[in-house]
Structure formats: C-alpha cells, structure tokens
Give the backbone structure.
Amino acid sequence: MIKTQGRRGEVAAELHTDFPERFEERRQIFALNPGGGRHEVALESFWPHQDLMVLKFAGVDSISQAETLVGCELQVPGSERTQLEPGSAYVNDLTGCTVFDGEREIGKVADVQFGAGEAPLLVVKGAKEYEIPFAEAYLKSVDVVEKRIRMQLPEGMLDVNAPLTAEEKERQK
C-alpha cells in the first residue's frame, strides 16, 4: 500500500494481481509490513481510483491508523490463491529461483521490483547484481517447483544492467 487516501482510514494500493475481482470474495487478508511482521486485516470495501485501488479495512477509521498500513504488502494464504495457467507464476514464487541465460547461470532472484516499466524487474544476485526485465520476449520457461527461470537475453543486456564496480566508479571520478 503506497499512501493514505481520504480521511476515513482508506489506503491506496498498487495492484500486482491479474485477479482484482477476487476482492469480492476474499475479505480476510494479511498485511506484511516492511519489517516482516504480519497481521490479519478485514477488507470492508474497495474501489478503483485512477491507477490504484482504494481499500477500506475494518477498524482502520482515521488517517493516522491508515498510515500504519502504508508500505505493507497484502498477501493471501497460498491455499487460497487462484490456480494459474501453465507458464504463469506468482511474484513471490520467483524469489529464490535461479536465472539462466541460455545454459549460463546468472544468479538467484533476490527481489522483484515494480514501477520501472511495463515488465517487473528481477533483481538477480550472482557474480554481480543485475536487474533483468521479467518480460515475455526474453522468457523461455519458469519452473517454480524446481526454482528455475530460463531466459534468452539480448546480447550485452547483462553488461548494460550491471552496476558499476568500485574500480569503474573510481575511473569516472
């Protein structure tokens, strides 16, 4: 959830789901705060506003109460997730997967970031840290059971996306 919205305890959230209609049937969800704490929240109502979804939770009736939810990630138990089509994956299933470019192992997914473009970015830590677009154009296969993501990346993409080494930073000075 990214900000408070209104004066009655509402929060505005970016949706990272292909199933927003499931809010109708799912009222008990969990809020995971950035520090790792998790608590159950009861969804009273929701409505779209611009590119966000406004959420109103039971017992959250003021701006100051809503502020405690800003930065939290909403989660549902794995047993309640919608069954996905083959080849699709939930974002949290990608974390920990090993990424391959062809047969070459790049590293493991440490995080998934949104907001930098159409495709989320896989933050992959290997010999270096890379930000790799999780775009269909590069994706060959995803196996969340075996924790493997196979991609075919354009020539030089890893060199462009690699952060500067200490030596490279020094040369720029």
Q: What stands out?
A: The longest strand covers residues 38-49.
